[in-house]
Amino acid sequence: MLLIFQPSTPPIASRIPLATLLRMKINRRQSAQLAEMVGTRLAWLSRIVARLTKLGYVPDDPLLSAAMNAQDALTRLRMAAHYSAVDGSGRKAG
Description:
The protein is mainly alpha-helical. It has a domain at 27-84. It is 60% helix and 0% strand. Helix 2 (28-54) packs antiparallel against helix 3 (62-84). The chain is elongated. It starts with 17 loop residues before the first helix and ends in a 10-residue tail after the last helix. The model is unreliable at 1-5 (pLDDT under 50).
């Protein structure tokens, strides 16, 4: 069995019920924490994409394509969380 990478902790969604997540409103500090957590997963996924590319997968391969789409989605999520964690001047809110 080939394991490329394995995350060290389960994603937050597996630890918090979905109904609770949908009702939650997050503040700037929590947005910053979310950006950091997503960044960790993004780094992990980026290593998967790099490894698949190094192994010779082509962009139209379903596995590499799905990994690249997930990488793009996590990048957008991380940026949205980051920008919601800073105030209008670009400084982190307290």
